Amino acid sequence: MRDTVDAVVKLFRVLPAGDSVNISTDNQIAIGDLVTRIAAMLGYREEIVRKPARQADVLCHNASNQKARALIDYSLTDFDTGLRETLDWYVNRVGAAK
To answer: Fewest CB atoms within 10 A around its CB: which of 10, 37, 62, 73?
Structure first.
């Protein structure tokens, strides 16, 4: 979260109005793998029910930081570290799942 906020503030100063840019860990992860990582980090031990993909389902997220890096200087937290920090933030505010 901190990396994203830092990048947004820096991009606000230089990105032309109406333009867009990716802010990501510059990697690819399948949604199924992300769900598995989140479950493991939260200690979820039950079965994860996976159903056949629907026509409009997003199966994978893949983003490039090339444009952002050309506009600003910023560093990224490792994906798993950032995911852990994000999950901790939600658990601290909403509570752990039961």
So the answer is: 73
First-to-last CA distance in the chain? 25
4, 65 in Cβ contact below 8 A? no
pTM: 0.69
Residues of the chain with pLDDT under 70: 1, 96-98
What residue spans define the domains of the chain?
2-94
Amino acid at 16: P
Answer for the pair 44, 96: CB distance below 8 angstroms, yes or no.
Answer: no
Instruction: Compute how many other C-beta atoms are within 10 angstroms of the C-beta atom of residue 50.
Output: 9
- Is 2-94 CATH 1.10.10? no
